[in-house]
Design brief:
Layout (H helix, E strand, L loop, with lengths): L12 E2 L7 E7 L3 E7 L6 E7 L2 E2 L12 E5 L1 H15 L3 E4 L2
Antiparallel strand pairs: 1-2, 2-3, 2-7, 3-4, 4-5, 4-6
Length: about 100
């Protein structure tokens, strides 16, 4: 059985365009993705759900009418990663951002 992918497995990188913002992106198969960022001066994270490369509302991941979910703890992010695995039936793969 393979190890469960969690927040601790993420490799955040600095964004060249927004100082002190860190980010990463996961893909779940060909269709789904998850953008994860931490904004400057924040100790929480926000995610954006991606379907076919576009930010989108995704039931169970984001609120109705919203494509981003903010104010998340590392445990919240791990929970969303697990939900994305379930929705996509694919293991996450970290992309080079």
């Amino acid at each position: 059985m393979s190890k469960r992918f969690t927040f601790e497995d993420l490799n955040f990188k600095s964004d060249e365009h927004i100082m002190r913002m860190i980010r990463t992106k996961l893909s779940f198969g060909e269709k789904y993705g998850l953008s994860i960022v931490q904004l400057p001066d924040s100790n929480t994270y926000e995610i954006g759900a991606l379907v076919n490369g576009e930010l989108t509302e995704l039931p169970g991941i984001t609120a109705e009418g919203d494509t981003v979910k903010a104010g998340l703890s590392p445990d919240d992010v791990t929970g969303i990663i697990l939900k994305m695995q379930s929705i996509s039936a694919s293991n996450p793969k970290e992309e080079n951002v």
